[in-house]
Write a structure and sequence with these properties.
By secondary structure, the protein is an alpha/beta fold. The protein is built from 10 helices and 11 strands.
């Protein structure tokens, strides 16, 4: 079984689950590398979909299809696409994205929230990845258009939040938040380098922070207008990206103690808006991590 990738697949799966804080039991839909019938059964066991030696029983119970524990290869697997090298992995990725966005038509897996991709490569390589919808509130209504080649293209867009969504229901004094010094530091950075950062980042962030005693606060970090600014309790500026996170988790995230991807998969961090702009926050987090001892 080692020759056909069992060990590699198991190691990759163990690593991704450890890194994300999730388990195979959280997965709803799977696209795996079923290059041969035997490989599919071996991969069931390697990924943890069933116990070792139980792949046949797993199939007999219908746990690999609709109505069972998992739906495996709703796309039809490699044979349905002619197994084109290279394009195989992209096809798996596309299928899982459609499933999570509720756009898979008759193949749709009801309630798909977490998807797993498994792929093998020539020369001895295995890849296992987890997919989770970044913007569940816009699932099924993400703008799509036709490119020149006729393919459907994904377009990121800024969603204007309603006043009720932006408004903080319960407020608390700024000093009660552990993360308050983080925003003070961000303000200092913008005072010194605001013009350069505005040109580089060009985004307005809103941080919705879960504070003490169930009370919440919000900060607007404007790295788009003028030389930038940081405002506590601001609601007048429409954000491009909204991040919802607990007070202590935000402190750990911004100081490099909490991995952003892990926080997202564990549900500690929720993001609305343009994900590529959200990733630009790394411009700040790397600097904050280095300055923690002296400025926080």
């Amino acid at each position: 079984m080692k020759v056909v990738g069992y060990d590699m697949s198991k190691t990759a799966a163990d690593r991704v689950f450890k890194k994300s804080g999730r388990s195979i039991k959280d997965v709803n839909v799977v696209e795996l590398h079923d290059c041969f019938s035997a490989n599919e059964l071996i991969t069931y066991e390697a990924l943890g979909l069933c116990d070792e030696g139980k792949a046949g029983e797993f199939i007999d119970n219908g746990d690999n299809t609709y109505g069972g524990k998992y739906v495996v290869n709703p796309s039809g697997g490699l044979i349905s696409k002619g197994h084109p090298l290279g394009a195989t992995g992209l096809a798996q990725c596309a299928e899982l994205c459609w499933q999570l966005r509720g756009e898979a038509g008759e193949r749709q897996v009801p309630g798909a929230k977490l998807a797993l991709q498994h792929n093998l490569g020539l020369g001895g390589a295995a890849v296992v990845g987890l997919y989770q919808l970044g913007f569940p509130t816009v699932a099924g209504r993400i703008p799509l258009s036709s490119s020149a080649s006729g393919n459907r293209a994904f377009h990121t867009s800024t969603t204007k939040m309603s006043e009720s969504e932006v408004k903080t229901e319960k407020t608390v004094e700024i000093d009660a938040f552990k993360c308050a010094p983080i925003f003070k530091y961000l303000g200092d950075v913008l005072n010194e380098e605001g013009k350069r950062l505005v040109e580089k980042i060009n985004c307005v962030y809103e941080f919705k922070v879960g504070g003490p005693e169930g009370k919440n606060g919000n900060w607007i970090v404007d790295v788009k207008n003028g030389n930038g600014s940081v405002q506590f309790g601001g609601t007048e500026t429409t954000p491009d990206v909204i991040l919802s996170i607990g007070d202590s988790d935000l402190f750990d995230l911004m100081t490099g103690k909490l991995n952003a991807q892990k926080a997202f998969f564990q549900g500690k961090l929720k993001i609305k808006g343009n994900l590529s702009l959200a990733m630009k926050l790394q411009e700040f987090t790397s600097r904050i991590a280095k300055s923690t001892s002296s400025k926080l």
